[in-house]
Sequence to fold (249 residues):
Amino acid sequence: MHAPSAERRLATSAALAAAGWALMLAVVAASAYIRMSAAPGADVDFARGAHRASASLAGLAVLLVAAHALWRRTLVPAALAALALTVFLALLGRATGAAPPPPAALGNLLAGVALTALLAWIFGRARAPWPAAARARRLARAALAAAALQAAFGAWLAIFLAPDEPSLVPWVHAGTGIVVAGLAAWLGVRLSQAGLVRQGLALIALAALALAAGSASLLLDMPTFASLAHPLATVVLLSALAQPAARIA
Fold:
């Protein structure tokens, strides 16, 4: 039998990473819903069950990503990093239970977002590169780093800042969010100029969506929207920014 081609090996990596990413997005959504619901009830019980099931399946997907990477010797460092994050999340969850203290909750949230973005990066790295957009490489990396810092800032706010506590910190977060959305939109323009019009327009749209979700969560009395749409839009934008960072040759 002939060994599979490099294209087939990478296609398998991309498919496994995409499955893991979708499951991690479900984990993020369930976690956001659980944090939003102060009183326990049937809905929260369902969300906890969905969280456990999605997290277990995501862990299996990451294990398959790592096993395939080691077997085919492709994308090994990123796959092992994803596996390490998965093991960390599993151990943290087992040690702290369903009601973790704030530092553990922050660690869980940050590691979950990092794993989701890393799986998106593996997916992008396993696909065809974008040599036409080489001039946008630095901008792509800067936008991804800025979005990661913004997500970490938002996670800290969600865990440690009381909702009714008067503070200017959320407005600082809003200001840095505008900067991140601007960087992402400008990267989308650069990709469009390089001939990647569909990818560029999608990135601009996601930047606008994240900015709108963040603005609505700050200015409008919509707790459900703030707790669900805003973090999901942030994670999706971070994952979208991982694509040009991974695929620009």
Observations:
- The two ends are 32 Å apart (CA to CA).
- The chain has a mean pLDDT of 89.
- The helical segments are 6-36, 42-72, 76-96, 102-125, 137-160, 169-193, 197-219, 223-247.
- DSSP finds eight helices and no strands in the chain.
